[in-house]
Amino acid sequence: MTRHTTMQGYRACAFESPLAGGANRRGEVLASRCLKLSPLLLSCLLAGCATTSPTGVIDTHLHGDRNPAAQLEALRAGGVTTIAVSTSWDDQQRYVEGNQMSVLHGLMFPCPRGKVPYSLQDCHADGREWPGVEWAEAQIKSGRIDFLGEVLTQYYGISPSDPRMDPYYSLAVRYDLPVGIHTGSAGPDHGSPDFREDLGNPALMRGLLARHPGIRLWIMHAGAPFFDETLALMREYPNVHADISVINNPRIVPPEAFATMMRALMDAGLGDRLMFGSDNANIITTRASLDALSFLDAAQKQAILHGNAERFFRIERSDRNVVPRNARTE
């Protein structure tokens, strides 16, 4: 979903991964031609990278696919047992609990011109850009919304702290819902004419954090390339987490750059607030990127793969699977 051109001094290949509708294989091919995998990651991929538990992974950053059944089967094969999915409202209803997969449903908004970026599906059947606040609250109470996200303020051309977002953030606080906000860059052809990269700077979240103390916020894509701002914000606000989607994709971010960012996050004492996410990239490859980080021990990797997300999303673990708390009351 992102194109990184200036992060930590490197230039990466452009790669497109739509918010709904499946991976863009042309982007994968182009990236594979101009970005070489490190020997460590390559050997990890070839060996199967079995240094962490093969099951129990929580993918905190997933979007729709043209073939949800095949998508979920691939995720299960990669050890994923819980997904946090956000896409068009209608498509999202196709993702249901069952077959050893728990599902957390998001609310994607605000939608530029009523469309999901990249796939350009209608976010809602009536073409609205913003969901009604009362409607959203009703869906939360009925258990159909487990988190707010992907919040698309950057694609919409506004700050994540724009006052128009406050009624939704208030709902999140009232019902103890996590909020995931897109940050960083974007790939081409997203169809959002008001997109601005500078609006993906996590520092812009300070306003909403001040107005909504205690909100459970997560920085999608770890804020890259605004990485210093991510570190500063997470140090200051213990209620802020981050997912590592995109930065763990070697077709977008070189493994050496990913390792540098992860070491900085761990050295800052933020390892208990990092969460795994794939953003629809190959689950084996993105898991291998984490497994290849030799400076992380098994417990730290397990925390990133599922433990931190269990706490953040208030997930209860049963003997068989992880079960989200769907019933929402004031």
Task: Tell me what you see in this structure.
Helix content is 33%, strand content 12%. It has helices spanning 25-34, 39-47, 68-77, 89-92, 133-141, 153-156, 166-174, 206-211, 227-236, 255-267, 283-291, 298-312; strands at residues 57-62, 80-85, 102-105, 148-151, 179-182, 217-220, 240-243, 274-275, 315-317, 322-324. It is globular. β6, α9 (227-236) and β7 (240-243) form a beta-alpha-beta unit. The chain has one domain (25-324): Metal-dependent hydrolases (TIM Barrel), CATH 3.20.20.140. The longest helix is centred in the last third of the chain and has 15 residues, at 298-312. It has 330 residues and is α/β, with parallel strands linked by helices.
Short summary:
Mean pLDDT is 85; it is low at 1-37 and 45-54. It contains twelve helices and ten strands. With 330 residues, the chain is α/β, with parallel strands linked by helices.
